[in-house]
Amino acid sequence: MIFIGIDVGTQGVRGLAADECGRLLAGARREYRNVNLAPRIPEGWREQDPRDWWDAVCAVLEEMDQEIDVRKADTICVDGTSGTIAAIDEDGEPVCNALMYNDVRGGGGKGIPKIMWLKEHYAWGTAGGSHAAGGDAADSQDTDNAASGSGRRIHRFVHQADY
Fold first, then answer.
1. Of 9, 38, 91, 122, which has the fewest CB atoms closer than 10 Å, so is most exposed?
2. What is residue 37's predicted lDDT score, i.e. its pLDDT?
């Protein structure tokens, strides 16, 4: 049996593969390209591009695949940084940068305050059933996300490990 553990951390991704006796079979690590997007963002804001997480996970698995066949893993477990929230569209793509666990928006708390901040600053919901923040003016934008410029709406909020 092969067990793979993936840690999507603050600085990068680490992966290990072990057998049922706990023997290490493979391991890899990949740092993110952009750990924090400061100084382009205000003091206290901590963001990362969720696509960097995915790219690093893929790179770690590809490196481990040189030592073992990762497709034959019996179990893969993924964990991530507590309190980091990503907003994704209906296709599972990020609408904006993820808010990290230590971001001060929404009062600096974990989870719900950050979600409320994102809901207030980005359009969310489906086109035609708008839940955009800001009342009628934001509702009239329908599929235009003025805050991000992406034109996509938030469909769901996910934890870093779920992205």
1. 91
2. 62
Structure tokens at 108: 């600096």
HSE value, Cβ hemisphere, 13 Å, CA-based, for 43? 0
Q: Is the pLDDT of residue 133 over 50?
A: no
Among 85, 95, 70, CA closest to 154: 95
> Looking at the whole model, is its pTM more than 0.85?
no
Q: Residues of 71-94 as b/e, b for ≥16 C-beta within 10 angstroms? A: eebeeeebebbebbbbbbbeeeeb
